[in-house]
Amino acid sequence: MTHADLVNKLLLAVSPMGLAWSNATGAAKVDGRMLRYGLPGSADILACVGGRMFGIEAKVGRDAWRPKQRAFAEALTRAGGIYILARSTDGTGDDAVALTLERING
Questions:
Q1: Number of folded domains in the chain?
Q2: Which CATH number do you get for residue 86?
Q3: Angle, helix 3-14 to helix 94-105, in steps of 10 degrees
């Protein structure tokens, strides 16, 4: 399972519960200049369910949690949101989806 596969699987599971979208960050070269977009470290998926803000970070395999991601998680939590680190260890993503739905329904 790729990171993109897991993000898509999580979006399919969370979207019917409220509003959820994929949150891309990165950089691209446009006309010879670097263009950066998105908030570095922000979660892969942002969602609003039942009036609560969720940040869902998808991780596959040995993918590590980076310092900017940790800082985003702390900021979101301080603001009253819920941050979910959805790590797939079973190769299908089902474990990450189950954890995410459990935290949302909490």
A1: 1
A2: 3.40.1350.10
A3: 40
